[in-house]
Amino acid sequence: MAILPEALKDVKALTFDVFGTVVDWRSTVHGELSKRARNKIASASFSTLPEPLQSHFGGISDADWGRFGQEWRESYGKFTQTFVPGETEWKDIDTHHYHSLKILLQDWDVAGVYTDEEVKSLSLIWHYLKPWDDSALGIQRLGTRYVTATLSNGNRSLLEDLNAHGSLGFRRIISTADFGAYKVRKALGVEVGGFCATPIHHGACIRAVGTYDGAAIFCDSDAVTHTHACPHAHG
What we know:
Layout: E1 13-16, E2 23-24, H1 25-42, H2 51-58, H3 62-82, H4 93-107, H5 116-123, E3 130-131, H6 135-142, E4 147-150, H7 156-165, E5 195-197, E6 215-219, E7 224-229
Helix pairs in contact: 1-3, 3-4, 4-5
């Protein structure tokens, strides 16, 4: 394993941003949206819908579903960034994904194509996002030396499912729901030694927390390699 800088010798635990950093939300969500649309069009129930709704829904292309997924993700960013602890009514990420999906279906004029049960099922695709190719191996290897943990806005059940589905190997699950807040609110501020936030890919960027003045460890599948000042992130 690579030699760590002196300032990081006392690090005992690594916490990871998850969405987009450890898992590839875009391809998974896009793929599932397209697959569900094809399955719905092929179903017997689709022919019972009003003809204009059938025509409009059937005209949504694969590229359109990619844009739909992007809008869904952007709604998550707006939700977490505008949430104010103690003022905004608490809503976990699963609930947000369900509510925002219903709103998007209305905005795209396809509300009523899916049953409410189907909408709820689709909203849970975020529990089964595909990891990046090197994520699981990298986290597993780091876990032989450090306590590895999520530090994510995802609710606990979501993170537990991602960990199991992707065989990520996180030794601990930490959700911002445990604190009743979302990153990067000051309400999450803690002073803990031996603790550093960790993006898993070169070029990924999140705000590190702990005692290292905003330094984040960059990792590959072999080892911790270097540090980098990192200004922001959420996920």
